[in-house]
Design a protein that fits this description.
By secondary structure, the protein is an alpha/beta fold. It folds into two domains: about 120 residues, Cobalt-precorrin-4 Transmethylase, domain 1; about 130 residues, Tetrapyrrole methylase, C-terminal domain (Methyltransferase, Cobalt-precorrin-4 Transmethylase, Domain 2, 2-Layer Sandwich), CATH 3.30.950.10. Strands 3-2-4-1-5 form a five-stranded parallel beta sheet, with helices on both faces. The longest helix is centred in the first third of the chain and has 13 residues. Bound molecules: S-adenosylmethionine (SAM). The site of S-adenosylmethionine (SAM) has 24 residues, from helix 5, strand 8 and strand 10.
């Protein structure tokens, strides 16, 4: 058995040259950055960043900070992970303070674990700073609690990203509890499979469901329907990535008039 004693993690310590900080930038709204993330952003010599880091957050970087984009380009594939790993290490070896900035939380569907493993395998110190993950922030900004007493006792975050062969092999039978909220990341492309498989697994086709696009950004879109109507809603409202699919009875926790009172919906 291994037991660990608490010690202040590296991210509590100062950011030195020759080190990498792997920082979660949250879902977009700069107000959702942690103070730790803000501190590292302000000190970076070079930032290696993804598509989901908002422009408002990029604007917080020092003006002389070098910016390297490694996200997906239009109609092209993302920079291979090995190249990103190498870039991080190369810049640290040039004695820079290297900021690896990622949308949401680096350890939730963010390959943060892989990057940290590589960085430390090269003998380089790596600070890890959590961020608010999309599922948490986007639902809050849409007035949807992820769990709610007597409505949802559990919540699952799951990827809708298909394998290279187009398959989506997920444990569907574990997602059919009516008191469970399910949040799909990267699921817009595979939505027809998701809805079909959930219904086949026993989830009622009338289960409330929502699509949240660009959550926490000024142009956030929230569309609500049911498991059965989701696919048509994607087409009707032209929902594109980055979007989350949220499934479960929690979606109807607040009536529209209450959402207006809470400031989530504009009064009619
Ligand atoms: C590669 S994953 C990265 C997740 C990220 N590490 C996190 O913790 O939120 C990208 C997916 O996250 C979701 N996502 C991230 N930011 C979002 C946002 N602001 N609004 C809606 N979905 C978002 C989308 O499903 C998107 O396709």
């Amino acid at each position: 058995m291994t037991s660990f004693q608490y010690m202040p993690p590296l991210h509590k310590q100062s950011f030195k040259t020759g080190e990498v900080a792997l920082v979660g930038a949250g879902p977009g709204d700069p107000d959702l950055l942690t103070l730790q993330a803000f501190r590292f952003i302000k000190q970076a010599d070079v930032v290696i960043y993804d598509r989901l880091v908002s422009q408002e957050i990029m604007a917080l970087l020092p003006s002389n900070c070098e910016r390297i984009y490694v996200g997906k380009k239009q109609a092209a594939h993302r920079v291979p992970q090995e190249n990103i790993n190498k870039l991080l290490v190369e810049h640290a070896k040039l004695n820079k303070k290297v900021l690896r900035l990622k949308g949401g939380d680096p350890f939730i569907f963010g390959r943060g674990g892989e990057e940290a493993q590589f960085i430390i395998s090269q003998g380089i110190a790596c600070h890890i700073v959590p961020g608010i993950t999309a599922a948490s922030a986007c639902t809050s900004y849409a007035g949807i609690p992820l769990t709610h007493r007597k409505v949802a006792r559990s919540c699952t975050f799951i990827t809708g990203n298909m394998q290279d062969n187009g398959a989506l092999d997920l444990p569907w039978q574990t997602l059919n509890d009516p008191e469970q909220t399910v949040v799909f990341y990267m699921g817009i492309k595979s939505l027809p499979t998701i809805t079909k498989q959930l219904i086949n697994a026993g989830r009622c086709k009338n289960t409330p469901a929502a699509l949240i696009r660009k959550g926490s950004h000024v142009d956030q879109q929230v569309v609500k329907g049911s498991l059965e109507t989701l696919e048509a809603l994607v087409t009707l409202h032209n929902i594109k990535p980055p979007s989350l699919i949220v499934i479960g009875n929690v979606i109807n926790t607040f009536a529209d008039v209450q959402l207006q009172n809470l400031g989530y919906l504009a009064p009619e």
